[in-house]
Amino acid sequence: MNFAKKIKESNRPFTVAGPCSAESEEQVLDICGQISKNDSVQLLRAGIWKPRTRPNSFEGLGAIALPWLVQAGNENNLPVTTEVANKKHVELALKAGIDVLWIGARTTVNPFAVQEIADAVKGVDIPVMIKNPVNPDLQLWLGAFERFENVGITDLSAIHRGFSMYNHPKYRNIPNWEIPIALKEKRPDIPIICDPSHITGNRDLLLEVSQKSMDLNFEGLMIETHPDPSEAWSDAAQQVNAAGLASILNQLVLRSREISDDVQIVLEEMRSDIKLLDDQLFDLLGARMKLSEEVGRLKRENNITILQQEQWTKVIAERIAARGDYRLTQNFVRQFMDAIHLESIRHQTKVMNPERGSSNGKKS
Ligand code: PEP
Ligand code: MN
After folding, report:
1. Measured in angstroms, how far is the CA atom of residue 286 from the centroid of ligand 2?
2. Among 196, 202, 203, 249, which residue's beta carbon has the most beta carbons within 10 A?
């Protein structure tokens, strides 16, 4: 059966687990044997070729490790998956009998590499899972799916592993949940698996991110597991042992996707109240922009610049100071005010420089 369909239809979370990297036959068979006892685990993973950010870290054992993973699958009666990053990897993985291929984040980012892999699997009946690109670009992610579809590979799933960011205080890769949510909107047919291991980089945060992904209706989880995580050759801080995996899966609260009729009625009422408020919010924003245009006219008549930095700094500071009254975070207030300010500048520019036109703010 179509693998993506199986992910969609199985009990949540469809769990992919196994070591970050295959380190030895014993390690692969040991951890895969342990985690396969957990009913949620339905696909075994292990990295054979490891894309490492810096050279001189462990880059995977390569093809020698493929039969270990295949054997782990046979012993536990589960399909197996590994990352492929070029044509050679695809050939070796297919020859060894790997059941599902996955495309890593550092590959999705590169259309040439994705196309090379798509061309290499053309005509083969194999499921492919595509991780998000390292940068938060939905188009690139969508493009990778399309490259496979163009060569006839349609059994596709997505893995959300977060996005690179310099020195984030909490996460190894920030989740930017709006991007997988937008992917769901564009491609509701594609199941999404969350990879909290690479998002957090920290086993203590796995449960919180896994729970969030379940609350957002993701279909599955990919969690790196190792017999002795702190001794792992790669990603030691984020891996858990079999008991750690079981503990995360047991603690997850799985809420229903279905809504009963009476709850639906109350929910509809609340939603219509929210819509009324949103309508008011947009009426106010429209009125505010009209005022901005008047300000623009005044500035034009008096030949003064649009941006009055001191004024803006003062406005932002006051808003942020008052944010507690509105139950809003500092980050939200900042982003919201910046968005209003940019739109206001656009309106003022339109009034001040009508002959030069005004950009609609869209990138080409
Ligand atoms: C991995 O899953 O081991 C991996 C290398 O992931 P990513 O491509 O998300 O960095
Ligand atoms: Mn890893």
Report:
1. 48
2. 196
